[in-house]
Automatic annotation (TrEMBL), chain A:
<protein>
    <submittedName>
        <fullName>Protein phr1-like 1</fullName>
    </submittedName>
</protein>
<dbReference type="InterPro" id="IPR046955">
    <property type="entry name" value="PHR1-like"/>
</dbReference>
<keyword id="KW-0539">Nucleus</keyword>
<feature type="compositionally biased region" description="Polar residues">
    <location>
        <begin position="93"/>
        <end position="117"/>
    </location>
</feature>
<keyword id="KW-0175">Coiled coil</keyword>
<dbReference type="InterPro" id="IPR017930">
    <property type="entry name" value="Myb_dom"/>
</dbReference>
<feature type="region of interest" description="Disordered">
    <location>
        <begin position="398"/>
        <end position="452"/>
    </location>
</feature>
<dbReference type="InterPro" id="IPR001005">
    <property type="entry name" value="SANT/Myb"/>
</dbReference>
<feature type="region of interest" description="Disordered">
    <location>
        <begin position="1"/>
        <end position="23"/>
    </location>
</feature>
<dbReference type="GO" id="GO:0003677">
    <property type="term" value="F:DNA binding"/>
</dbReference>
<comment type="similarity">
    <text>Belongs to the MYB-CC family.</text>
</comment>
<dbReference type="InterPro" id="IPR025756">
    <property type="entry name" value="Myb_CC_LHEQLE"/>
</dbReference>
<feature type="region of interest" description="Disordered">
    <location>
        <begin position="71"/>
        <end position="117"/>
    </location>
</feature>
<dbReference type="Pfam" id="PF00249">
    <property type="entry name" value="Myb_DNA-binding"/>
</dbReference>
<keyword id="KW-0804">Transcription</keyword>
<feature type="region of interest" description="Disordered">
    <location>
        <begin position="285"/>
        <end position="304"/>
    </location>
</feature>
<dbReference type="InterPro" id="IPR006447">
    <property type="entry name" value="Myb_dom_plants"/>
</dbReference>
């Protein structure tokens, strides 16, 4: 398989890295390893469906859909795997030198390479905002590639020859496949070799586009829908379904419409005939057997047993009341789920925010020479500016009223930052945030026993 | 450990087709445990980092699984939603007061069926949101354990990615859920008094699959958030369920053995 050459290359590269004399930790390399796997299997799909989302205005995710396109199913994912854990030793310690630095730095993320730091924060910002700042990121990674020329004996030609190409390529894919790799992959320059292996199809596409399209990156991804293999996933929205139904009706109804006809009529980019086919099938089933169609036979059996029993209950309670009760509970659950989700998002947001604070501060600290500055008390202008920037970028979600008390609870150095940032925010013409902060603090007390 | 048990219980109560779609929490925990807690570079060792590797690999697989299942269900819901709406329109158009053949009896009969279907539909969607949530929680927890074990920093970036996954972005489903609620309110109007009274009745229910699952989910949620020995930056505050007596009052019998 194509994968192995890439791996062996990285193996040799890794040895060089290791010889650079850093310590080693195991923590993150497996991410590399498996994300390698995923990346490899996902790669041809990565541009698949994002285009299919374009006509549909769903603000959730142009990215999510791109990710959805990677929702490749078991077949692809598992095939490369067997070879994986059995690969000879050379491959194993690859990332460790790199990652170790990040790990041993304690709470702070980036290793000593400042370029990596840039990479880090840029990528964090990218992830967060959803809009891309491609050039700095891409340049950084390219730098990394070129910094380790010995790593890439085989690949160099391709890498250098297709610089801009790989860049935009990589970035697209990066956004398509963020979760598998995380930032850890960015820390590893070898990572960028991988595209070369799989670059066959999309690269021909990319040549048609101007290199490194920044704002247009999404359109790059969208137009790259040649030769898509069968198994990517489409995320169906009501709007898309509407279009589907219209098309079907135009073609004479669910019985007479053919997948091909529907697909052409819908004219949605990235929509393959397989998507339409499976959707049509579901549609047909749903029409013929309303309301029990999508469950399958085993579930039907289950529900009928249950129903027999509950029928007694229902007659005694009155069906209406039973339904109302059921509805009530369901509503309740949903409410709570929504709240919980908001909280979870907020927690992670703040975690990210704290992280950035650390990094930013570290950067500043490193920037200043040995003059001793206390981390907490320094009212340096660059720090507050940095905080303002970081804050503006990370905290864009609306802050719901439910507060996160926990983050205020622990007396750690991080809280020092937190305090400063709170002050800063209070002074700033926030996006409603200066209002949120006091609310949050108040909440801590109300929710009470979070602090032990 | 508590979460593991809670998860197991929810899986037990869940709709049959969903049973193996949940997070393999136990397996992941085993992997975390098998990671040596004092990582040293063992030159040439075959086993080095194998558990970590497997862990991440499994994690990715799980996420794949969630995404696939979630989107499949979502697609079904989108279709069913439309069908329900159309069905309602048809019934109103045919047997409703302003319809082609106004007939109160037929109208009521059909509407009763539709009502049940809407409620079940609503319930399933909520359960899907719950599915998403439970799995997310599990992921967050297991990542925390992993980081603790390896001193690593997998958690933060990984969770960021998870947040963007299809299975976590449940906005569409929530929207459909709310749509259901308003549809039901529109088509089956009810006085407020009646509603609150019924909601408070203490009932023993041998309920339907969906109902049981909902109750189990609510109970789980309450317990998970009751209190933990490991509160940290990333812990959720305790759950304050209004009318928590309602939940308590609904007791589930032992599960019906299914095929």
């Amino acid at each position: 398989m194509n994968m192995h050459p890439a791996l062996s290359v990285q193996g040799s590269g890794a040895k060089q890295l290791r010889d650079m004399g850093s310590g080693a930790m195991s923590s993150s390399f497996p991410v590399f390893a498996s994300s390698l796997d995923d990346r490899y299997s996902k790669y041809p799909d990565s541009f698949q469906v994002s285009s299919g989302r374009e006509p549909v205005t769903n603000s959730i995710s142009t990215q999510a859909s791109a990710l959805a396109s990677n929702g490749n199913i078991d077949g692809r994912l598992l095939t490369p795997s067997p070879g994986f854990p059995n690969d000879p030793h050379g491959r194993l310690p690859q990332n460790s030198p790199f990652i170790s630095q990040s790990s041993t730095d304690g709470a702070s993320f980036p290793p000593n390479h400042s370029s990596h730091q840039d990479l880090q924060s840029t990528v964090l910002m990218n992830q967060y905002e959803g809009s891309q700042d491609i050039p700095p990121w891409c340049t950084a990674t390219l730098q990394d590639i070129l910094d380790f020329p010995d790593n890439i004996p085989v690949q160099t030609g391709q890498v250098e020859g297709a610089t801009g190409v790989i860049t935009s390529e990589d970035h697209t894919r990066r956004n398509d496949w963020q979760w598998a790799d995380g930032l850890i992959s960015e820390l590893d320059p070898d990572w960028n070799d991988l595209p070369d292996v799989n670059v066959i199809d999309p690269i021909s596409e990319i040549h048609q586009q101007p290199p490194v399209p920044s704002a247009e990156f999404r359109s790059v991804a969208n137009t790259l829908s040649t030769a898509p293999p069968a198994k990517s996933r489409m995320r169906w929205t009501p709007e898309l379904h509407e279009a589907f139904v219209e098309a079907v009706n135009k073609l004479g109804g669910s019985e007479h419409a053919t997948p091909k006809g529907v697909k052409n009529l819908m004219n949605v980019e990235g929509l393959t005939i397989y998507h339409v086919k499976s959707h049509l099938q579901k549609y047909r089933t749903a029409r013929h057997k309303p309301e029990s169609s999508s469950e399958g036979t085993s579930e039907k059996k289950f529900t009928s047993i249950e129903e027999a029993k509950s029928a007694d209950i229902k007659t005694s309670m009155g069906i209406t009341e039973a339904l109302r009760l059921q509805m009530e509970l369901q509503k309740r659950l949903h409410e709570q789920l929504e709240i919980q989700k908001k909280l979870q998002l907020q927690i992670e947001q703040q975690g990210q925010y704290l992280q950035k604070m650390f990094e930013t501060h570290k950067k500043i600290e490193d920037g200043k020479s040995k003059t001793s500055t206390s981390a907490l008390g320094d009212p340096s202008v660059p720090l507050s500016n940095a905080i303002a920037d970081v804050k503006a970028e990370t905290l864009k979600l609306d802050q719901p009223k439910a507060g996160i008390g926990a983050s205020n609870a622990n007396p750690t150095p991080e809280e020092g930052f937190w305090d400063i940032s709170q002050e800063q925010r209070a002074h700033e013409p926030g996006d409603g945030e200066s209002n949120a902060s006091p609310t949050k603090r108040a909440r801590t007390d109300q929710t009470g026993n979070i602090i032990d | 450990m508590k979460f593991g048990k809670r998860l197991k219980q929810q899986i037990q109560e869940t709709l049959p087709g969903w049973r193996d779609q949940f997070l393999s929490y136990k397996e992941l925990k085993k992997l975390v445990r098998s990671i040596s807690s004092a990582p040293t570079l063992l030159n040439g060792s075959f086993e080095y980092g194998r558990a970590e590797e497997e862990f991440v690999y499994l994690l990715n697989n799980e996420i794949e699984k969630f995404n696939a299942f979630f989107m499949e269900q979502e697609e079904d819901f989108v279709i069913r939603n439309k069908e329900l709406q159309q069905r309602i329109q048809r019934v109103i158009g045919k047997w409703g007061p302003n319809g082609n053949h106004p007939s109160e009896a037929d109208y009521k009969e059909e509407m009763a069926k539709i009502r049940k279907d809407i409620v079940d539909f609503h319930g399933e969607m909520v359960l899907l949101v719950n599915y998403s949530n439970v799995n997310y929680t599990g992921l967050a927890k297991i990542l925390k354990k992993y980081d603790k074990r390896t001193g690593g920093l997998l958690r933060l970036p990984f969770i960021q990615k998870v947040l963007q996954q299809p299975f976590f972005t449940t906005d569409l489903i929530s929207k459909l859920v709310k749509q259901c609620e308003s549809t039901i309110d529109a088509v089956f109007p009810v006085e407020d008094e009646e509603r609150t009274r019924e909601a408070r009745e203490a009932i023993i229910v041998a309920g339907e699959g969906i109902f049981r699952n909902t109750v189990a989910a609510l109970q789980s949620m309450q317990e998970i958030r009751r209190g933990s020995s490991t509160y940290g930056h990333f812990s959720l505050p305790p759950l304050n369920l209004p009318d928590s007596e309602l939940i308590q009052s609904v007791q589930l019998n032992s599960p019906i053995p299914t095929v």
